[in-house]
Amino acid sequence: MRCREPASVRRHSCSPSRQPSRRSSCVTSSARRPSSSSSGIFTIKADFNHLDGSGRLVLSDLVIHEQTPFEAIAASGKPILFVQGEDVVQGRLVNDAIRGWCGEADWDTQDVLQEYPQPALARAG
Fold first, then answer.
1. In this structure, are residues 78 and 29 in contact, taking their beta carbons and an 8 Å threshold?
2. In Å, how far are 2, 3, 5, 27, 57 from 22, measured between CA atoms?
3. Measured between alpha carbons, how far is residue 73 from residues 26, 61, 79, 87 in Å?
4. What angle do CA 16, 42, 63 make, to 5 degrees?
5. pLDDT tens per residue, range 13-34
6. Which residues of the chain are under the pLDDT cut of 70?
7. Annotated domain spans of the chain
8. How far apart are CA 90 and CA 105, in angstroms?
9. Sign (positive/negative) of CA torsion 115, 117, 121, 122?
10. 114: buried, middle or exposed (CB in 10 Å: 19+, 13-18, 0-12)?
11. Contact 100/50 with Cβ under 8 angstroms?
């Protein structure tokens, strides 16, 4: 059985000492309020070309974020990764008086995360 949740926000919390089984020990939830007492990372889908004049990711006017609990996520203090396709950047949420919720991205972290297993080239037979 797989957990399903909106792809716009995912909260991940896995024990590094245990490998998830079919009934994963990994907790993913956007339905409940983020808890400041548990560890986790939030991933938020973003359009890296949808920026304000300060270079921040504008999030609050994107349709996929109509139900995203930005205030609770920001208050949690958990690390946030903004994601567009395979591109990932770390950052934090800020509530702009005019634009609404924006992602203040640390663009120096783009292309820093490494994926495993790494893609391998297929040999021609």
1. no
2. 8, 11, 17, 13, 35
3. 19, 17, 9, 21
4. 150
5. 433 333 333 333 333 344 445 5
6. 1-38, 119-125
7. 37-109
8. 6
9. negative
10. exposed
11. no
Query: Which contiguous run of DSSP H or E holds residue 74?
Result: helix 70-76
Q: Which amino acid is at 59?
A: L
**CA dist 8 → 20, 22, 83 (Å):** 23, 24, 9
Q: Which amino acid is at 54?
A: S
Sign of CA dihedral 116, 8, 81, 13: negative
Phi first, then psi, for residue 120 (nearest 5°) are -115, 145
What pLDDT shows up at residue 124? 66
